[in-house]
Amino acid sequence: MDLTERLAGRPMTNPRADRVKDVAGLAGRSARSRRGLFLAEGPQNAREALARHLEAPCVDAVYVTAEALARHPDVAVLLEQVLADRSVFVRLVSREVLAAMSDAVTPQGVVVVCRLLDVPAEQVLATRPRLLAVLVRVQDPGNAGTVLRAADAAGADAVVLTAGSVDVYNPKAVRSTAGSLFHLPVVQGADLPGLIDGARAAGCGVLAADGRGDADLDRLQDASAARAAGLPAAGYDLARPTVWLFGNEAQGLSAPEKALADHRVAVPVHGRAESLNVGTAATVCLYASARAQRRAPASGAGR
Amino acid sequence: MDLTERLAGRPMTNPRADRVKDVAGLAGRSARSRRGLFLAEGPQNAREALARHLEAPCVDAVYVTAEALARHPDVAVLLEQVLADRSVFVRLVSREVLAAMSDAVTPQGVVVVCRLLDVPAEQVLATRPRLLAVLVRVQDPGNAGTVLRAADAAGADAVVLTAGSVDVYNPKAVRSTAGSLFHLPVVQGADLPGLIDGARAAGCGVLAADGRGDADLDRLQDASAARAAGLPAAGYDLARPTVWLFGNEAQGLSAPEKALADHRVAVPVHGRAESLNVGTAATVCLYASARAQRRAPASGAGR
């Protein structure tokens, strides 16, 4: 008996059912924090949520349409494995029910209800991280999600959002992460000075991305390549464990926030753009650190 | 007499006026192409549109609230200069009128109606460009705008969108460019094989960003640094004039599209992310080329 048949016994078809309203309500921050749950929508997030659940339980419920199950066999395979787990509520739903649960303009056939995943800053610092991305009062959910996805790709050990930042469990932020929320630890509501003290104690240097910074990212990267080649080089060593600070999209980092960093680092702007999108700046900075850290043990800039 | 007073003589306060509907209609692609006009919203876009207009006329009309004029003195200064130009229609409008004209959820007090800016591919190729970003069937307006802004920051000579891509004049795309649309030439509706033939004839190499690519961007960058240091290095020279191809966000580049490139280049993914957002990939690739091209004449990897 295949998965669709096993689930077909009790499909949900009433978009006005209390359970549907409960799920839809998780689009709001207060319901999320009260209930300790959030929504992960779409096949990519569902796949990553289910894969993580099989390692460390995090999924509360899964609602999926028959069409989506047929279209995403990888999700169906994971669901088969999860179904044995009685603590996860899995239901086939009609498209109307899915649309009523989803926050997306174009629902993608599957909604996973997950338990909040964020961890305390102390837990991240105890692992002696090599690369941390800190979002300082970033407001736009799409930006936060994009930075989280870029941090995952760059191999960052965790992402931290300071107090006053957008909620990373905002449905739009979750969609923008494309599943990366399930890949690396996230800290929310961090106090920036306390976090930086803890990171320094854990051996990290602190860099602030700042368009008007005193250090130039290209020079830091060249110095890192030189060092890896055994040549002398001055300045901050990008191969060090590093915390990167990225500021609010409109105002950037405040003067006191910048002052907390060892260096304020400018990403070069070669054209006429006045500034970089926070996602773009974070991508360039995190990839620069990742490159330096991964090159450090090797030798020769030409490798 | 200050600008607000000069404009106050004839404020627009009726959100149902025909002119208001005409402006709002430019949120739609067919009205834009029929009338040859598009909307640039918000102070950042307004500033860049007006600055460009003073060099090469492109602004048809400006609608601004008194609050926005007071809050953005840089826009007011540019408007003063543009007011002498009788071909630009400038009006103070009420907040209701501005909201009715704007496509944005949170209108930012100023809407500029501009003439379409895109140029033929031949015009771009005739300048023998060193760095071109080509969006191949990219669908999301926010992604297209973000890549355009990143291409501007990386100093690209132009951005090309192939046939089947989102319209770069989509209001959301324009907002995401943060003014970069007024900084560098944009080509729309390009035929990819024809564009690549033309680019090769103009001396460019062609690289396709491809998660499963045969070339690794880190290695290309290291080879470039080695070459600049006078060391031998094999493979594609990133310092060459280069066209980068970036694919559709869901499907990437098709096999025939990839086959058009000299190399398929993978951006390293160090963490567990399965893929990169197109904006993230474009940022890393374009910055890598910019770095190599700008380093080429210098010597020494440690500089």
UniProtKB/TrEMBL annotation, chains A, B:
Keywords annotated in UniProt: Methyltransferase, Transferase
Organism classification: Bacteria, Bacillati, Actinomycetota, Actinomycetes, Micrococcales
Protein name: RNA methyltransferase
Cellular component terms per the entry's GO annotation: cytoplasm
Gene Ontology biological process terms in this record: methylation; RNA processing
Assigned protein family: Belongs to the class IV-like SAM-binding methyltransferase superfamily. RNA methyltransferase TrmH family.
Residue ranges of domain RNA 2-O ribose methyltransferase substrate binding in the record: 39-120
Signal peptide positions (record): none
Pfam families: MRM3-like_sub_bind, SpoU_methylase
Oxidoreductase keyword on record: no
CDD domains attached to this UniProt entry: SpoU-like_rRNA-MTase (cd18095)
GO MF: RNA binding; RNA methyltransferase activity
InterPro entries xref list: Alpha/beta_knot_MTases (IPR029028), MRM3-like_sub_bind (IPR053888), Ribosomal_eL30-like_sf (IPR029064), rRNA_Methyltransferase (IPR051259), SpoU_MeTrfase (IPR001537), SpoU_subst-bd (IPR013123), tRNA_m1G_MTases_N (IPR029026)
